[in-house]
């Protein structure tokens, strides 16, 4: 009788404990060791650990195959985000977009994609040939055939994320100022939002060169790590100053600590194709014969003219 009661109480205790331990927003990034190296795995469970097309990955030219896609068409990215709010999500700072006319098309994507939100990772998530960048911006979109990002996240390739890398430079990125000034109002509390203290056009956070990029099929880089994402990471990075990068680290996580890093560890490529797209098409054998032919024609023309 007593032992049954005890088992019952333990079961009840465990049952009340479980829902809170598996709450999706209770995950966190591992804390770097004093020397800055991250030794612990994330231990996020579920698909984050069992998936075969996870993100981020190391992007290397050696592992990539050549791609040739139609140009990207960014519609209304020049317009400042309407009623822009900056939110401390506890894992990043995020700007939501509610205007469905801000869309992305082309670039080999299977349809039209609507911009949902932009957020930052300090310490880039993707690396290029093993090199990590100071910052990575994610522009998250959903396929317009679905009603929301949540709905699209359950469907293979119905989410398109654009990754923009930022290298550390001795000059501030002035387009980032409005984000960082506003971030100081929300840094102390996860869940807090504030209106953006100025205008921000998504276009100003895109590199000029939008023809050179890596493309692969992957996942969200935060739990649930849903494997629904078509990734595009541009190879041209934008500048950001060290002071600006340091400001991101003053954002507080849900337990009130400074969020020193918020990038996920690199995931294996496995059997996936990594595609590299560029408009530079004259690197092969074709260019030189064409040039010498032009020279020969010019030489003959010059001789004939004499
Ligand atoms: C984009 O970058 C690639 C790789 O660096 C380069 O070959 C290409 O010419 C660039 N295109 C434009 C339009 O600047
Ligand atoms: Zn992200």
UniProtKB/TrEMBL annotation:
EC number(s) recorded for this UniProt protein: 4.2.1.1
Enzyme class of the recorded protein, top EC level: lyase
Keyword Zinc found: yes
Cofactors, names only: Zn(2+)
Family annotation (Pfam families): Carb_anhydrase (PF00194)
SMART domains per record: Carb_anhydrase
Reactions catalysed: hydrogencarbonate + H(+) = CO2 + H2O
Keyword annotations: Lyase, Metal-binding, Signal, Zinc
Name recorded for this polypeptide: Carbonic anhydrase
The species this protein was found in: Aedes aegypti
Gene from which this protein is expressed: 5571799
């Amino acid at each position: 009788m007593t032992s049954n009661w005890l088992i019952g109480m333990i079961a009840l205790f465990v049952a009340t404990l479980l829902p809170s331990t598996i709450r999706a927003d209770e995950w966190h990034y591992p804390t770097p060791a004093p020397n800055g190296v991250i030794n612990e795995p994330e231990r996020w469970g579920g698909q984050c650990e069992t998936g075969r097309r996870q993100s981020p990955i190391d992007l290397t030219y050696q592992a990539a195959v050549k791609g040739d896609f139609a140009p990207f068409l960014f519609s209304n990215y020049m317009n400042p985000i309407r009623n822009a709010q900056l939110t401390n999500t506890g894992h990043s700072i995020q700007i939501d977009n509610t205007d469905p006319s801000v869309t992305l098309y082309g670039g080999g994507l299977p349809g039209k994609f609507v911009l949902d939100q932009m957020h930052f990772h300090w310490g880039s998530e993707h690396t290029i040939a093993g090199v990590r960048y100071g910052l990575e911006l994610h522009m998250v979109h959903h396929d317009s055939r679905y009603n929301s990002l949540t709905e699209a996240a359950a469907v293979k390739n119905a989410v398109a994320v654009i990754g923009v890398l930022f290298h550390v430079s001795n000059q501030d990125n002035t387009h980032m100022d409005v984000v960082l000034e506003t971030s100081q109002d929300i840094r102390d509390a996860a869940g807090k939002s504030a209106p953006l203290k100025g205008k921000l056009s998504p276009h100003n956070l895109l590199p000029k060169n939008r023809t050179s990029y890596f493309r692969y099929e992957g996942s969200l880089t935060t739990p649930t790590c849903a494997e629904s994402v078509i990734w595009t990471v541009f190879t041209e990075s934008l500048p950001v100053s060290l002071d600006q990068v340091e400001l991101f680290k003053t954002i507080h996580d849900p337990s009130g600590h400074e969020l020193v890093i918020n990038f996920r560890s690199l995931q294996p490529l496995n059997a996936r194709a990594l595609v590299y797209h560029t408009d530079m098409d004259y690197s092969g054998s074709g260019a030189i014969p064409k040039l010498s032919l032009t020279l020969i024609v010019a030489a003959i023309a010059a001789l004939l003219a004499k």
